[in-house]
Amino acid sequence: MSPLLLGGVLGATFGAGLLIVVRRMPFLRKPSTDDRIAPYLRDLDGTEVFLGAAASNSPFYAILRLFGPSLRSGARRLERVLGGANSIRRRLARAGIERTVEEFRIEQLLWGTAAFGAGLVASLIAVAAGIGNPVAMLVFCGLLGVLGVLARDTYLGTQVRNRERRLLTELPTVAELLALSVAAGEGPAAALDRVARSCRGDLADELKQVLAETRAGDTLVRALDALAERTGLLALSRFADGLAVALERGTPLADVLRAQAGDIREAGRRELIESGARREVAMMVPVIFLILPVTIAFAFYPGAVGIRLIAG
After folding, report:
1. At CB < 8 A and 24+ separation, what contacts does 96-105 make?
2. Which PANTHER family match (predicted)?
3. Looking at per-residue confidence, does 46 or 21 come out higher?
């Protein structure tokens, strides 16, 4: 790399950093109405991003205090670009993550910044070694930043699927325990409370939230409907609807719960068979495209060599 180009890159980096620092000076930045009233409504508006995760004497707390306004501003801009706040809110609830859309956007910014920084370090090393074009490397860093932002969204989808899988795994056992408690003479609310205290897992946490809503004044049927809407799983929706219908119409609850548990186990067995069939088809890909050509090559190569020797 020529000294002139290296000096230009370093000068541009220094100038960009200096411009960012100057633009964030207090006397050049007019505070908005939200910034002026935020210190008096800190416990209400929830603008303290991730500050509960760090102690006041930790370096992480100081970093969050320093870059918190910039992160929130970037999160708002990212939200305007990407949109879909309602979808993100539903997916966060289905994943069991107690965060706001703004905090999730800040996580996306941090992932994108980390990917951009890693690409920038690799690009500087490559340019210093005389490999690659600086403009192409800058475009590469930008693409890595975008991929980092999208990777957080993809990981949220993975978190949702993993939690739904855990909920479906726990549901038959919870239904059987509820049936045993109801058959022993306990009421629906008491049975839910006993199972929620006895079990550990995501479904037990959901049942605790249902009980909290009932203690707050909501009816059990409405809390179960909210559970079905919050999770978004068809099996869990049927389970909650079955409980609600049994409570409203006076159907024997123990029989309904046992039937629900049997249906859920049967659905899980069918899904396992379907998954095995799909994996069996997927296993044919390496067999056909990798193992079979090698076998054919080993079978025909000696004959081809022999024919060549005879013809020669």
Report:
1. 96/163, 96/202, 96/205, 97/156, 97/159, 100/46, 102/49, 102/72, 102/75, 102/76, 103/49, 103/50, 103/75, 104/152, 104/156, 105/74, 105/75, 105/76, 105/78, 105/79
2. INTEGRAL MEMBRANE PROTEIN-RELATED, PILUS ASSEMBLE PROTEIN
3. 21
